[in-house]
Design goal:
By secondary structure, the protein is an alpha+beta fold. The protein has three helices and five strands; from the N terminus they run αααβββββ. Strands 4-3-2-1-5 form a five-stranded antiparallel beta sheet, with no helix packed on it. α1 runs antiparallel to α2 and α1 packs parallel to α3. The longest helix has about 55 residues. It is rod-shaped, with a radius of gyration of 30 Å. The relative contact order is 0.11.
Length: about 200
């Protein structure tokens, strides 16, 4: 029983020499599909939602978050291209006629595919880490919506304070001097962001 089992394992080991490259190519197809999907998702999120959220950040945080997102996009694109290379190979110039030449090419190609998959997975992990870093920067550096200081000019005067609410009918401001003030939109001449109300 043990000898038969050992013989079967030896046969499987010999067969793996011939099936290793197709198996690696199949793994690379999965990586390529996953990386392409992640890259497309990142691009869509940045284009559709990112501009609004990045505009709320201070200049230095906006630059850091944008740099992280661009680098993540480049890494994920490079990972996708590496996975495509691993899955489909590169065009060869020579036709392999001999058995030994085919064997050497298969061993070299298996090594190239393994390296390309390792680099593709590294690019994927680093890209996801950079996207997470950009989200952390945006989350930490974005002010809460109710803490914006605004200066409102009305036809009767100027009110400065924290913006509480702005809807279709009115604007509510919490002022240190006047308390909570509700101003209807028709009476507002101008409303700007204030650095600090005195």
């Amino acid at each position: 029983m043990s000898t038969r089992s050992d013989r079967r394992w030896a046969e499987l080991a010999r067969e793996m020499e011939f099936t290793r490259l197709p198996e690696l190519r199949r793994q690379a197809e999965g990586w390529r599909t996953g990386l392409t999907g992640l890259t497309a998702l990142l691009a869509v999120l940045v284009l559709l939602k990112g501009r609004d959220n990045l505009a709320d950040l201070p200049d230095i945080a906006r630059a850091i978050a944008t740099g992280l997102l661009v680098t993540a996009f480049v890494l994920m694109t490079a990972g996708s291209l590496l996975a495509v290379r691993a899955a489909h190979g590169a065009p060869e110039r020579e036709i392999l006629l001999g058995g030994q030449a085919l064997r050497r090419w298969t061993e070299q190609e298996a090594a190239r595919v393994t390296r390309a998959l390792a680099w593709a997975s590294l690019c994927c992990v680093l890209g996801v880490i950079l996207v997470a870093g950009a989200l952390v920067v945006a989350w930490v550096m974005t002010q809460a919506s109710g803490t914006h200081e605004v200066m409102v000019r009305t036809d009767t005067g100027v009110v400065c304070g924290k913006l509480i609410l702005a809807d279709r009918k009115h604007v509510e401001i919490s002022s240190q001097t006047s308390g909570k003030v509700s101003l209807p939109w028709p009476s507002i001449v101008n409303m700007t962001r204030a650095k600090m109300c005195s």
